[in-house]
Write a structure and sequence with these properties.
This protein is an alpha/beta fold. The protein is about 35% helix and about 25% strand. It is globular.
C-alpha cells in the first residue's frame, strides 16, 4: 500500500490552510508529520481520510484518487484513529472494535474472530466485555487502534495518538503501531518520539511542508529554530524505554 500526495491544497471558509503539499508513505513505512500548533498538520490528515476535500492536487492510495473512491472501498484501504473520537462511548470494547468491520459484508463468526485477533495484538485480549468509557486513556487508545486493525487495511492514519497519555502509554502505543508493519502516517508533537519511531518525517510550517526525509537529516538545529522558534541544544537527558514485561 502506498500513499501519494501531490500539490495538495486545502481551504476552509475561503482561507487556504495547506499549500501545495507533496508527501509519500511507502508500504510498511512509519512516517511522521510534525510542526507547530496551527500549521495545518491535522487539516492535511483530515483531507487524506476524506473529512475534508482538497481545493487542488491529488491524494492517491495505490494510484487511485481517494476522493473518487466509493466510501466503502476507501474504508477498506485506509483506517483512521482520529483525534476527536468521543471518550465516553457507552459500548463494550468488543462493540467498538467490531465497528472496524463496517466496510465489509457481515460475517458474524469471521468478524468476531478478527476482532479478537485485533484485541490480542494490542494486548487487550481479556477486555472484550468491558465498557469503553471505564477504560484508562491508554486502554482507550489501544481499543481504537484495535478497531483500526480489525478494518484490515494496509494504510493507517493517526492524529496525535499520544495526546493526553502518560509516558508509559505513549511509548506502548507507538511500539504497537510500529510493530504492525503497515504503511502509517501519524501527526506527532514530540520530536524525540518522532525521531525514535518514524522512518521518515515531514515538517510543516504555516501550511507548507518545508522539509522531508530521515529524522537525522530533517531535525537539524537550524530547521527547529526556524520552524519552532526555539534553540535545539544537545544535553544529557532522560531517555525512556518500554519495559518488556508490561506487554
Amino acid at each position: 500500500m502506498r500513499l501519494d500526495l501531490a500539490g495538495v491544497a486545502v481551504a476552509i471558509d475561503g482561507h487556504t490552510i495547506v499549500h501545495e503539499a507533496d508527501l509519500l508513505v511507502d508500504d510498511g513505512e512509519f512516517v511522521g508529520l510534525v510542526g507547530p500548533n496551527g500549521c495545518g498538520k491535522s487539516t492535511l490528515l483530515r483531507t487524506v481520510y476524506r473529512a475534508l476535500r482538497p481545493a487542488a492536487g491529488l491524494i492517491a492510495v495505490d494510484g487511485d484518487d481517494v476522493h473518487r473512491l466509493p466510501a466503502r472501498e476507501a474504508a477498506r484501504r485506509t483506517a483512521v484513529v482520529a483525534q476527536e473520537t468521543p471518550a465516553d462511548l457507552d459500548f463494550t470494547v468488543a462493540e467498538i472494535v467490531l465497528m472496524g468491520r463496517t466496510p465489509y459484508k457481515p460475517d458474524a463468526v469471521a468478524d468476531e474472530k478478527l476482532c479478537g485477533l485485533a484485541l490480542d495484538r494490542v494486548g487487550l485480549a481479556g477486555a472484550a466485555d468491558r465498557i469503553f468509557a471505564t477504560l484508562s486513556g491508554g486502554e482507550k487508545q489501544r481499543v481504537l487502534l484495535a478497531r483500526a486493525l480489525a478494518q484490515q487495511t494496509r494504510l493507517l492514519l493517526l492524529d496525535e495518538p499520544t495526546s493526553h497519555l502518560d509516558i508509559r502509554h505513549q511509548l506502548e502505543l507507538l511500539h504497537l503501531v510500529r510493530e504492525q508493519g503497515i504503511a502509517t502516517l501519524a501527526v506527532l508533537h514530540d520530536l524525540n518520539q518522532a525521531a525514535a519511531f518514524c522512518d521518515r518525517l515531514y515538517v510543516m510550517n504555516a501550511g507548507r511542508i518545508v522539509a522531508g526525509g530521515p529524522p537525522e537529516q530533517v531535525l537539524t538545529p537550524d530547521l527547529i529554530s526556524e520552524v519552532y522558534g526555539v534553540r535545539a541544544v544537545h544535553r544529557p537527558q532522560l531517555v525512556f524505554e518500554r519495559l518488556q514485561e508490561e506487554r
